[in-house]
Automatic annotation (TrEMBL):
Its cofactor is [4Fe-4S] cluster. One of its GO terms (molecular function) is metal ion binding. The keyword Iron applies. This is Putative DNA modification/repair radical SAM protein. It comes from Gilliamella intestini. Residues 62-197 form the Radical SAM core domain.
Length: 426
C-alpha cells in the first residue's frame, strides 16, 4: 500500500469513529462456493471497545468532505481538518486487501455529503457493487443511507447490503434545526420508512418466490446523540419506543456528546462525556425490548430522567412496592421477569424448574439469580421474606447503588486510556 493510500485511510478511519451505529448483528449471507467471504449470524467476529464501537469491520468513510455544517460533527464544512476521499474502486480494493489479510470480516461504509445526497449515495453503492459483483465478496456490509437520497437508490442499496442505518442524531426537530440547519426530520424519516416498507414487501415476495434476493436482511439501526441538547430521557425513550414498533428497526444507539469541535454557542460546554447516562439509556432500551416494560413505567412526568445511581429496573421496583414480593414458585413469568436481579434466562429457568420442585434460596442461586438484588423483592420456599415494605427504599438504594463511573476529563480521556477505534498495523 502506497503512502498516499495510507494517509487517506488514517484520515477517513479517524473521521468515521464517532458513528457507533455500526455493530454487525445476525445477517446470514452464505457463500455457495463462489467468491470469497461469508456473513453468518455466528460467523462475524465481534470486537467491541468499552463504549460499544464494533471494530471487526473496516469502519471507513468514502470521503470526509461535506457540504453540511452540523455543529456536533467533526466533518462539518466549516472545520479546518485534513480532508480526503477514496474512489469507489480504491475503497473496494482496500476492503478486499484487508479481508485477505484477515484484518476484518466486513465493511461499514459512510460518507460526508458532496454535491448532493444522490451523488454521494451512488458512489457508495458503486463501492458495494464492485465488492459483490467483481470480487464476489459475500461478507457483512453495513451502509449509512444518506438523508435526502432518492427511493430508487435506497432500493438498489438494500439489495446489496446486510444492514442500513439512518442516524437521527438529535431527537427533536427544533433542536436538530438549531444544530444542523441543513437537515430536517422529514429527510431522515423518509429513507427509514422506505427501508421498512421495502423490507416488509421483500419478505412477502420471498414467501412466493424463493429466488428473490433479500433486502437488508439485518434490518436497520439509528443513532441518537445524548447531551448535546436539552431533551429529557423521557423524550428520548418515547422516540425509541416508537422506532421499535417498526419490525425493521433492530437497534437504537445512544452516543454521549463529545465536543470534537471548537467553541460553538449552540453547544453545551462539557468536561465529561455523559457515559453513565448513556449506559442507563441502554439499560432502559433493554427493558423496552426484552422485559415488557413501557416508557411510562421507566420514566414519566414525575421522573423524566433516569436515576444515575441505580439501574432503571431497580429504580422502578423501588418506586412500586405494591408489586412485591413476587412468589417465584407461584407467580407468572411476566411478574418474575420484573424482579431486579432476575434476567430473561433466569426467569425462564425458574418457570421450568418449579414444575419439578419447590425453589429455595440455594436453587435460585444455582439458576443464576443475583440474590443481592432479588432478596428484597421475592418469596420462595424456606426462604426468609425480604419484603420491600420491611426495608426502606433509602436502605435498598444505599445497599444496591453502583459506584459512579470514573470519567476522566476529555483531555485525559483522549491522551490516555480513551476507548478508541483500533488502528491497522502495517
Amino acid at each position: 500500500m502506497n503512502e498516499k493510500m495510507i494517509t487517506k485511510l488514517e484520515i477517513l478511519a479517524e473521521s468515521a469513529k464517532y458513528d457507533i451505529s455500526c455493530s454487525s448483528s445476525g445477517a446470514s449471507r452464505s457463500n455457495k462456493g463462489k467468491g470469497i467471504g461469508n456473513a453468518h449470524k455466528s460467523g462475524i467476529c465481534h470486537t467491541f471497545t468499552a463504549d460499544g464501537r464494533c471494530v471487526s469491520l473496516l469502519k471507513i468513510m468514502l470521503t470526509n468532505y461535506c457540504m453540511f455544517d452540523c455543529a456536533y460533527c467533526i466533518n462539518r464544512q466549516s472545520n479546518d481538518i485534513p480532508r480526503a476521499g477514496f474512489t469507489p474502486r480504491e475503497l473496494a480494493d482496500l476492503t478486499i486487501e484487508f479481508y485477505r489479510r484477515n484484518y476484518i470480516e466486513g465493511l461499514f461504509i459512510s460518507s460526508g455529503i458532496v454535491r448532493s445526497p444522490d451523488h454521494t449515495m451512488e458512489k457508495m453503492i458503486r463501492v458495494v457493487k464492485i465488492l459483490r459483483n467483481e470480487h464476489g465478496f459475500n461478507g457483512y456490509i453495513h451502509m449509512k443511507a444518506i438523508p435526502g437520497a432518492s427511493n430508487e437508490l435506497i432500493d438498489q442499496a438494500g439489495l446489496l447490503v446486510d444492514r442500513m442505518s439512518v442516524n437521527l442524531e438529535i431527537p427533536t426537530e427544533e433542536n436538530l434545526k438549531l444544530l444542523a440547519p441543513d437537515k430536517d426530520h422529514q429527510s431522515i424519516y423518509q429513507p427509514m420508512r422506505q427501508i421498512h416498507q421495502n423490507l416488509l414487501e421483500n419478505i412477502e415476495d420471498r414467501k412466493k418466490f424463493r429466488s428473490t434476493p433479500k433486502f437488508v436482511p439485518a434490518g436497520q439501526s439509528t443513532q441518537v446523540i445524548i447531551g448535546a441538547t436539552d431533551e429529557s430521557d423521557k423524550q428520548i425513550l418515547q422516540l425509541t419506543s416508537k422506532l421499535y414498533k417498526r419490525p425493521s428497526m433492530k437497534r437504537v444507539y445512544y452516543s454521549g456528546f463529545i465536543p470534537v469541535n471548537g467553541y460553538d454557542k449552540r453547544l453545551p460546554v462539557v468536561q465529561d462525556v455523559p457515559r453513565m447516562r448513556e449506559n442507563r439509556l441502554y439499560q432502559a432500551d433493554w427493558l423496552l425490548r426484552f422485559y415488557d416494560f413501557n416508557v411510562d413505567e421507566i420514566v414519566n412526568d414525575q421522573h423524566p430522567d433516569l436515576d444515575l445511581t441505580v439501574d432503571p429496573k431497580l429504580a422502578w421496583a423501588i418506586r412500586n412496592p405494591q408489586y412485591f414480593p413476587v412468589d417465584v414458585n407461584r407467580d407468572s413469568y411476566q411478574k418474575i421477569l420484573r424482579v431486579p436481579g432476575i434476567g430473561v434466562k433466569s426467569a425462564k429457568l425458574i418457570v421450568m424448574a418449579r414444575r419439578h420442585r419447590k425453589l429455595t434460596f440455594e436453587a435460585l442461586k444455582r439458576i443464576g439469580v443475583v440474590l443481592k438484588r432479588a432478596k428484597f423483592f421475592v418469596v420462595c420456599h424456606e426462604m426468609k421474606k425480604f419484603k420491600l415494605l420491611d426495608s426502606s427504599a433509602d436502605y435498598i438504594r444505599l445497599t444496591l447503588q453502583e459506584p459512579p463511573l470514573q470519567e476522566p476529563s476529555l483531555l485525559e480521556d483522549k491522551q490516555n486510556n480513551a476507548p478508541e477505534q483500533l488502528a491497522m498495523g502495517w
